Amino acid sequence: MIHNYRSGVAERLGLGYADLQSDNPGLIYCAVSGFGPSGPMAKRPGIDLIFQAESGMLAITGTPDGPPVKVGTNAADVYAATTAAACINAALVRRGITGLGCQVDVSLRDAFLSLQACWFGSYLATGIQPARVGAGSPFTAPTDVYPTADGYIVLAVVNDKHWRIFCETLGLTDLADDSRFVDNESRVTHVEFLRKIVSDSLAARTTADWLSAFKSAQIPAGEVMEYADVVADEQVQLNQMVIEFQHAGGFAVRTQGVPFWFDGVKADLVVPPPALGQHTIEILREMGCTEEAARRLAER
């Protein structure tokens, strides 16, 4: 069983773990709540934006001179669900060995904090709050989003070898030995000045031109894509990340595929969402109703 009620609500409804486990010792019961099963915030309601704010994510996201910024999607909700799925799988393995189920509790806020392991771990080790650096990196430079003649490009120069190749690719060979950029630490120190030089150079050519040049130079780079670009992308199509099927209502529906393979094969079972009431009789039969009773109930 899975639910995302606030802590205490399922118990009040008679659907708590203790209420159900006695009848089914193998029950795996997963409760996803905002702040965990106990403590001063256990019964506090919350939404994704609050979890992003109170896990520290907003404080490290955005530009240095701007306000805190939320992640573009409902990332806390999704990551908590992913965490819950992993826990449920672990519980299933345990049940296969012991025959016993268990109670799994996942906190949305805590799950999103765990996603920030690099930054939060750095703070715990140093006591220094990580600065907001936009799309840049506090560790390497130039690593950022840059405008081109027709869009935006992302790139990462992660070592001194790449730096020299990067300068040659941009036609800025004089920068390679500039004392301000002689090593990565120096480039990070002078990142604002370096960003202006790189931005001016990249703005002279199209994204496609630069991607081709960086591919030849083996410099990590990519295009900033909108969803229409993602859907049209050859690799996305090959990976079946956009699938289409016919809905029971007689119209075509596109939806997102799955990002994994089993034994080199993507899941080929594509089942459209049912129309309202489409499976009512089937479900009632599975619950023990006779055919006649199921049809009678379905007609109500």
UniProtKB/TrEMBL annotation:
Keywords: Transferase. One of its GO terms (molecular function) is CoA-transferase activity. InterPro entries: CoA-transferase_III_domain, CoA-Trfase_fam_III, CoA-Trfase_III_dom3_sf, CoA-Trfase_III_dom_1_sf. Signal peptide: none annotated. The keyword Zinc-finger does not apply. It holds the Pfam family CoA_transf_3. PANTHER family: BLL6097 PROTEIN, SUCCINATE--HYDROXYMETHYLGLUTARATE COA-TRANSFERASE. This is Unannotated protein. It comes from freshwater metagenome.
